[in-house]
Amino acid sequence: MLRRALQVVARCGQQGALLRAPRILPGLNPASAFGSSTDSLVSRFCPEKTDLKDYALPNASWCPDMLSLYQEFLEKTKSGGWIKLPSFKSNRDHIQGLKLPSGLAVASDKGDWRIFTRCIPVEGQGYEYAIFFHPSEKKSVCLFQPGPYLEGAPGFAHGGSLAAMMDETFSKTAYLAGEGLFTLSLNIRFKNLIPVGSLAVLNVVVEKIEDQKLYISCVTQSRDQQTVYAKSSGVFLQLQLETESSQQ
Amino acid sequence: MLRRALQVVARCGQQGALLRAPRILPGLNPASAFGSSTDSLVSRFCPEKTDLKDYALPNASWCPDMLSLYQEFLEKTKSGGWIKLPSFKSNRDHIQGLKLPSGLAVASDKGDWRIFTRCIPVEGQGYEYAIFFHPSEKKSVCLFQPGPYLEGAPGFAHGGSLAAMMDETFSKTAYLAGEGLFTLSLNIRFKNLIPVGSLAVLNVVVEKIEDQKLYISCVTQSRDQQTVYAKSSGVFLQLQLETESSQQ
């Protein structure tokens, strides 16, 4: 029922609003074809050679649970199926050579831009996370360890920090699974607080792709699955990135 | 319908889960009386004299829209009605002398803890915001200017940064309006992207307080109200903070 309602609302409301807003998304054509295969999206997103720093690598701040589950998934990448996503400082690095659809004004590239979930550079203090993606099953797992700069209630991660981690994992998954670019909605039911410094595992699944929208669900829980931290869902709008004709 | 569903779900689901989880929230009694008046909550929350740095003060990074709307609301605090909320480095500073209900294990106070929305100390790079609260009408306004470290799509604020700003504004409002302590749910419909460095205004209203839950809604828009960035709602669980018997 929720999905049906979201479809209707999205068609009549959010998507319409996005497309009507002349200052933000003028001239977009949501009916464009979505021809990029997941393979080509993934190979562009995960360059084999790059000088860019990958922030999704183990460091001394990772708790034993985080480290061992990371190694477990890294093993799974060798036998095929799972892919470890690199995590650069900015989304600009992830979409090199591409740009948002025409009409989306992009501010100057000269500044010091950071993707929100990599806003705190000190290891262990802010976001520690690594995302693994399974192209054929269109699902992801995000290992998330909130640091003390992500606090809400004393000793626990801020609900907003988990919301942002969900949105970021959803958006990477949506892009790779089907060129999902913009979050239309995000719904979260919080169940338990995540202690700062501990591991939370986000299990993300693309439920369906329909009417140029991706419907994604997520269960966030402890590694032993005994504690559910949150259940959530999100809807993303498909839009194709354009080839950059000139470097800014 | 959403609210009715949430009530039922919250009673049967989230709240139950929170209360059942022995490691996170053992021994809480949600049926405790909520005797604290909004006035006493506000006066404790907004100390007239404090050595703590208030981060919700104008600085050179604020755009003209942010600055002038801040001054406008500051004028309104003089004639009564509106109150400017201070914003300290940590929630621990906001609840000095109080602690979370028994059973909620709090990690050591020795570390460098920061509330998530004040995680980036450099002016203008991360979160710039100020919250004004209207006790008798149980509503808030948050002036929010996302910096370049809060980026999602190039040039625009990450959806998760707005989600966190909502959760933070909701939680302060919920606490002062009726001792709302824990986010049970957060639902966001994104309409337009917020350009980095511009002002977004969150208009937050407590719709009702029922069955120990606060139901909150929010419209986030540009100052001229011509662009709606998002519409959202949240549900918070009421729980009383306890008096701290000994300093850690």
Automatic annotation (TrEMBL), chains A, B:
The gene is THEM5. GO terms for biological process: cardiolipin acyl-chain remodeling; long-chain fatty-acyl-CoA metabolic process. CDD domains: PaaI_thioesterase. GO terms for molecular function: long-chain fatty acyl-CoA hydrolase activity. InterPro entries: HotDog_dom_sf (IPR029069), Thioestr_dom (IPR006683). Residues 155-225 form the Thioesterase domain. GO terms for cellular component: mitochondrial matrix. This is Thioesterase superfamily member 5. Gene3D superfamilies: Hotdog Thioesterase. Pfam families: 4HBT (PF03061).
